[in-house]
Specification:
Layout: H1 2-15, H2 20-29, H3 36-43, H4 51-61, H5 73-119, H6 126-129, H7 137-170
Helix pairs in contact: 1-5, 2-3
């Protein structure tokens, strides 16, 4: 359990992009006298962690429970991956909402500018007001189509390469792998 704890602290800290010094600072902010060396010793399994420190580590790493740090590293890694993906989706969704609001403000600006130009006797051609015809949802639909096309191209490429590699191997040639795994 102690080794799981040490491994999970290190892996989750790294996944968050925190240095050992960053985590130590977060722990200091939570009332624990941690240094970078303290974090290193914990991650190496060379220093035991008190329950109060485990709770502070949980908070510093943004985990729902300090007990998560005692789970098997494999299970912890999957949970951490899910949490990171969930956060990423939330950030991306917020970005879509912000971009949509910005687009709607821009459309309102176009409408006001076109109205004021017409009121001033300036001819306003359809090029200047063309953005008023576009619903914000169109951008999401276009992005989805582009994503699906990119995925299809990737799958086609993978299939083609696999077919060629199978043909090469069937002719008796075994390509040399440069992989270190």
């Amino acid at each position: 359990m102690e080794q799981n704890f040490a491994t999970n602290v290190r892996e989750y800290r790294e996944q968050l992009g925190l240095s050992q010094e960053d985590l130590a600072q977060r722990m200091v902010e939570r009332g624990s006298g941690f240094t970078q060396a303290t974090v290193w010793k914990i991650e190496q399994g060379k220093r035991a962690v008190r329950i109060a420190e485990a709770v502070a580590l949980m908070d510093a790493l943004g985990l729902p429970s300090w007990m998560n740090l005692t789970r098997s590293p494999h299970a912890f890694r999957r949970d951490a991956q899910l949490q990171a993906a969930h956060r990423y989706a939330g950030v991306a969704y917020a970005a879509i909402k912000d971009a949509t609001a910005e687009f709607l403000r821009a459309q309102a600006e176009v409408a006001v500018a076109a109205h004021e130009a017409r009121e001033a006797g300036v001819a306003v051609n359809s090029l200047w007001t063309s953005w008023l015809e576009e619903p914000a949802e169109r951008a999401v639909i276009e992005a989805r189509i582009a994503y699906d096309r990119e995925d299809a191209i990737h799958q086609d490429l993978h299939g083609t390469v696999s077919t060629i590699m199978a043909a090469i191997r069937a002719s008796g040639y075994e390509p040399v792998s440069t992989s270190t795994t």
